[in-house]
Structures
1.
Amino acid sequence: MDNPVSLRRDGNVAIITVDNPPVNALRHGVRKGLFECFTQARDDASVEAIVVTGAGRTFVAGADITEFGKPSQPPGLMDVISLIDDISKPTIAAVHGTPLGGGLELTMGCHFRVAAAGTRLGLPEIKLGLIPGAGGTQRLPRLVGVEKALPMILSGDPIPAKDALAAGLVDEIVEGDLVTGAVAFARKVLAEKRPLTRVKDREEKLKNIRANPQKFDEIVAQHAKKTRGLHAPAAAIEAIRMTLDTPIDEAQKKERELFLKLVVGDQSKAQRHIFFAEREAAKVPGIGKDVAPREIKRAAVIGAGTMGGGISMNFANVGIPVTIIENDEAALKRGMATIEKNYQMSVQRGSLTPENMGKRLALFNPTTDLNALKDADIVIEAVFENMPVKKELFGKIEKIAKKGAVLATNTSYLNVDEIAQVTSRVPDVLGMHFFSPANVMKLLEIVRGKDTAPDVLATAMAVGRKINKVPVVVGVCHGFVGNRMLSARGIEAEKLLLEGALPQDVDGALTEFGFPMGPFAMSDLAGIDVGWRSRKERGVRAEIADTLAEAGRFGQKTGKGFYLYEGRSPRPDPEVEKLIVDASVRLGVTRRNVSKEEIIERLIYPMVNEGARILEEGIATRPGDIDVVWLYGYGFPAWRGGPMHWADTVGLKKIRDRLRQLARESGDKRHEPAALLNKLADEGGTFADYARQKAA
Ligand code: 3HC
C-alpha cells in the first residue's frame, strides 16, 4: 500500500513522518498523506502540538520534479500549507539534511522550525528555471527580511542551519536526536503559552522595506547581475516585490501563476533536463553498485603547468595529499607560485581563510623526482600533449607506481588505449580529462579505454565526485566528446570569417545565444599558438588563426589576438579586419553579409551532427551526457539544456535539412547528416526519444 506519510504519538504530541525515499519529494501520495495526517491531528482533541519530520537522509527536498508538466492531482502543496496555516495548535517542522523548495515552503506553513546541526535550507527553484510556487517568495521575506530572502531565492543556494537560526528562519538547532528535541521544543511552547503567529501574518521584518520601497531596487541591483536571457529571476523579483504592498493571499495566487507559466516554458524544461541528465551521467553501464572503487588516500600529478597545477589543487582542496612532479626546479617553482597565487586570490575574495590556505599548501609535496609517485593511489599525467612524450612517461610511471594504483592521463585528444599499451597494466589505465582552469571548471571527462577495469572506472568516478567535479564517462576517439564537437564548431567559425563575418559578429551571436564567450575570445584566452602548434603537427591549416599566430598574435598573453587587449577586455582591431579581408581575397572567397541566425546554425548544427555520430559510435552513452559535457566544460547555457536537448527544441528535421543543404553547397562531407540524425529526423523523433528507447 502507498503510505509514505505516517502519524504516531508521543503523549500529547503528534509526530507526522514523511518516508518517501530517496529525498522525500512531495509527490501526490506524500501530499495526500500529509493532508490526511494533519487533518487527523488537528481534529484529535488529545493532540496538543504537531511535529512534522522526514525519515531517512533528509527532510522533504522539494516538489517531485518528475511530476512537473503532468496534470496535477489534488491536494496541491498549497492546499496542505493552507490547512496547516489554520491549525490553532502549535505546529513544528523538525528538519535535517536538505529541506529545499517545496520542503522549505512546507516548514514555513508551520508556526516553528527546529533543525539538526548540519542542515542546509534553501529555495533552489531558480536552478530549475522556476520560482518557489507554494508561498516561498512571500513567506521567506516575512521570516528573514527581503535583504536576505532575495539573494537566497535568486541564487538558489541553501544556507547552513546556524545562519538560518541567526536570520530567523529556524527557531532552534537541536543537538542529539531531532524528533526528541522537537517534541521537547513543542512542550516548551505549550508550557510557555508562546503566541502562535502564522508566518503569513508576520510583518515585522517587512516594516523597514515597506517604509523605504526604493531600497528594493537597490537590493535587486546588488544581486540580479547574471540574469541575462533568463525568465525565472525576473519572475522571482516580481513575486518578492509583492511583499511590499500586496496582501499575501493575493500575492500567493500571483506567485502560483508565475510558477505555472515557468513550468511549461522551454527554459525550465531545459534546466530540468540538465538536473536529471547530470544524475544519469553518474550511472555507467556495466558498473553496478557491486563494483567497489579503490581507496584513494594520496595522489600524484605529473606536470606543474597550468593543467597540472589546477588538477593538484583539486586534491589539496578536499584534504588529499598530492605529490606534484616537474622535470626541473625552475618549472616546479613557477608552478607552485601559481598555485599559491590562486589560493591568495581566494583569500582576498574571502572564499578561503588564510589558515585553510596554509593547510592546503601543506598537502603539496613538490618534487623533481619521479620516484616520489610510488606512494600514490592515483597518478595523473598532465604533461605536454604529445604521444611519444606521453608513451615514454607511462613506460616510466608503471615501473614506479605501486601495485593497484590508478594511472590516468589528462590528454585532451590522444588515444588512451595506445598510451595504455606501453604499460603492463592496461586495465589500470584510463583518461581523466580536466578542463581549464582545472581547479574551477566542473567537468571531468573520464575516458574509458577498451580494457579499463570496471573498478578503475568506478574509482575515477568516485574521485571525480570527491573533488567536486561532474564526471562523465566517454569513449576513446580524437578529442573525446567535448573537443571533438568543439573542433566541428571551430572549423565553421573560421569559414564564417572568410565568408564575411568578423570575430565580434561570431562571438556576439554566441554570447547572445547564452555562451559566456564566443570561439574567438576563447581562442585568445587559451592562446592561439596552442591550436597553431597542434595543427602544424597534424599538417593542417586554419588560414586566419594561423596567420595571426605567425604574426605573433597569440591572444591575451601577447595583448593581441583576434582582438586587441587592454587588460582582459577585448576590442575589435582594424588590423585583424584587414587581415581577414585579405585572406578572403587570397582564397578567392567573395565576402557577403552573414546574419546572426546563420552564425548560430553554422556553428551549432555541425556540433549536433557530430554529437549524433558520437552517440552512434558509443563514445557517449546518452544524449544527456553530451549536454552535461557542454554545460560544465564549455558554458553552453543551462537554460537551453545543452546542444542535444536544444536540437530537439529546434526540430531534428530542420537541422538535418539545413545540414544537407550545407553539405551540398560547400561540398564538405562533414556536413552530411549522421545516420542517427537522419533516422530520427525521418521518424519525427528526438534525441530524448532515442535516450528513452535505449534505456528501455
Ligand atoms: N524530485 C524528484 N526526484 C528528485 C528530487 C526531486 N525534487 N530531488 C532529488 N531527486 C532524485 C534524483 O533524481 C536522484 O534520483 P536517482 O537516484 O534515480 O538518480 C535521487 O533523488 C537522489 O538525488 P541526488 O543524486 O541528487 O542526491 P544527493 O544526495 O546528491 O542530493 C539533493 C540531494 C540535495 C536533495 C538534490 O537531489 C537536489 O538538489 N534535489 C533537487 C532539490 C530541488 O530542486 N527542490 C526544489 C524542487 S521545485 C519545488 O519544490 C517547487 C515548489 O516551490 C512548489
Note: DSSP finds 30 helices and 18 strands in the chain.
2.
Amino acid sequence: MKLSPWDTIEVKDYSKLFDEFGIQPMFPVFSESYLFRRGIVFGHRDFDKFLEARESGQRVSVLTGIMPSGPMHLGHKMVVDQCVLYQDKGVQTRVLVADVEAMATRGIPEEQARDLAVNEYLLNWVALGLDLKKSDVYAQSNRSVPYYRLAALLSGRVTNAEMTAIYGDLSPAKTVSSLLQSSDILHPQLKEYDGPHNVLVPVGVDQDPHLRLTRGFADKLGLIKPSSTYHRFMSGLDGGKMSSSRPGSYIALNDSTKEALRKVDNALTGGRDTAAEQRKKGGQPERCMVYELLTYHFMPEDKELARIHADCKSGKMLCGECKKILKDRLGAFMDDLRKKREKARPKVKKFTEEMFTC
Ligand code: TRP
Ligand code: SF4
C-alpha cells in the first residue's frame, strides 16, 4: 500500500495503516462528536500527547490546510467540523490556504486559486462555523518572512534519499510544496509566533507522508513533534472513488439544492434489484452511499442511525423511504448553508482582501 498526498488514493483496509505506517488507532474521546464516536476519525499520531498538554494547561494549537484546486464538497466537511469542535473548546485554530501548492503542483493560475479559496472554501468554512475572529487564517502566498525562512532552512535538513523514502519520485514543485507544508505545521512554534508547543494537525490520511517528514524535522530542530489525526475518506456517490473530475461522484457545497437532491437520487445504494428481494434478503448498508451520507454528515443521532441500519438489514425499510429521510435533511442543510454563505460574504470578502495583499 502507498500513501500519497498527490494521487487519489483509496484505502480498502484502514487497519493496515496501523502496522504499515505506525499510525495509532484512535481511542474513545470527545463523545459529543459523532466523527469521533463513530470512528470516522480513525487514527492518530501522538494525539494523546496533545490532549495531555492541553489538560495540564500548556499551550496547544490546531492547524490544517485547504488546497484550492477544485470544488469544495462534502468529503471536505469532516475536517471543518473538527476544527470548529476545537475552536469551540477554545483551542487556538489556524487554517491556511495552500495556494502556492495549488499553483506549483496543479498549475492553477494565481487568480483562480484565490477565487477558489474564497468562493469555494472560505465562504463555506465560515458558513459551517469557522469564526474568523477566533482563528488565524492565512494564505501560503502571503504569510511571513520567518515562515519562508523556515521552509528554506528545512531544505538543508533532509536528504534526497529520505525524501524518496517518504514520497517516492518527486518533482521540484512537490519538493517545494512539502517543505512549505512542513513550515506550515512547524512555524507556529517559532519565537516570532507562539514558541514551542504541541500543534495538532487534523487531516485525511493521504497527508500522513507530510507529517512523517515534519516530525523528522521537529526532532532535528529541537521542536515539539506535531500531533495528527486522520479521518476516513468518503466514497464516491456512484460507487467509485470521489473525484473532482466526476461531479456525479460528490455533492459540492455550492451545488444547488435541486442538484444535490438529484445526485442522491442517482447514488449507489445497497438495495436489491427488486422490492420483493429486498423485503426477503434485506439491504446492505455497509455498501450504501445513502447510509454513508447519513453516517458522515446528516444523522448525528446514533439511535436513529442504528434503527435505519436494523430496518435496512431486516428488509423492513426500502431505499425510497430511506432516501427521503436523507433528502429532507440534505435539502434543509443546503438551503441553510446557502443563507449562511450569503450572510458571511461581506466579512469574508473584506477579510480575504487583507489576506491576499501582495
Ligand atoms: N497538502 C494539503 C492538501 O492537499 C494542504 C496543506 C498545505 C496542509 N499545508 C498544510 C494540510 C498543513 C495540513 C497542514 O489538502
Ligand atoms: Fe441504503 Fe437505506 Fe437502501 Fe438500506 S434501505 S440499502 S441504507 S438506501
Note: The chain has a mean pLDDT of 96.
